[in-house]
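We now fix the convention by which a protein and its fold are recorded. The integers have meaning only within a learned vocabulary of local backbone shapes. The record below shows the convention in full.
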Amino acid sequence: MAKRLMPTLNRVLVEKVLPPSKTSAGILLPEKASKLNSGKVVAVGPGARDRVGNLIPVSVKEGDTVLLPEYGGTQVNLGDKEFHLYRDEDILGTLHD
């Protein structure tokens, strides 16, 4: 990636994870069965400020796998990759193994 995008305020840059289209045994999965709105956090902003001016940090960190809403976010193309920008409060949760 030639450019590095650093989000501002409480925004999070996410690269969506593409679910597998077939199983390890070679069975093709229908598109609906493989639909999971998740992504990997690539970059995070410093956080937002409250009314007093105190910094409220972002709740996720780079490398986290997060659950995303079905709609929303801003699509950003950097080079040949597609990313999405979300506000911290729009992210539904983090996924752990």
Notes: The chain has a mean pLDDT of 83. The first strand starts at residue 11 and ends at 16. The chain has no helices and eight strands.
